[in-house]
Amino acid sequence: MTSRVSAKGAPGAEDPGEDLDADRTEGEAPDASAEPAAPVEGDAEPSAKDAAVTTPGRSRRPPAMTTDTARPEGGGRAAPVGAPAPARQWPLLTVLGLTALGLFIVGTDLFAQSFRVGTMLVGVALLTGAGLRRALPSVGMLAVRSRFTDMVTYGVMGGLIVLLALMVQPNPWLRIPFLEDILHLTVT
Predict the structure, then answer these.
(1) Could you tell me the CA-to-CA distances from 78 to 68, 88, 152, 166, 170 in Å, in that order?
(2) pTM of the predicted model as reported, rounded to 2 decimal places
């Protein structure tokens, strides 16, 4: 038993696909319903003809690097292309700056109600992010999800943080009676 080895370009090398077309007369088209020859054990590579028939076209394996991830709605630059990177991301830097200022006020405890004021500033930063997301057509990296989802997320989280900062003990700045009743029912 001999095995055929395909060595393209080598003198005297056999091509496994040559003998398949030997019984066809000149000018006759190949039969489309004919099944491709099974690869012979020991073949280094299937011929181009066999590869075209046996492979479905594209690999089912996921690509090594994603190249076409969609940008969020409104996720373009907030400034012209020629502007430096910080200027292009000014909406995100505004929100992060307000948040950092609020955390600094809470952390340094500069005055009597600094924990309340600093926490309210963090909530206001999120509300500012929701407002920027609504008002501007393009907000750079502040856009994470769809415009509606970002606005709702930033707005609800910012509103809750401000509300809790106003109601924090001791001496809350905002009293909501039914919330106090619920708290007393759960604690006692």
Answers:
(1) 21, 5, 21, 33, 42
(2) 0.58
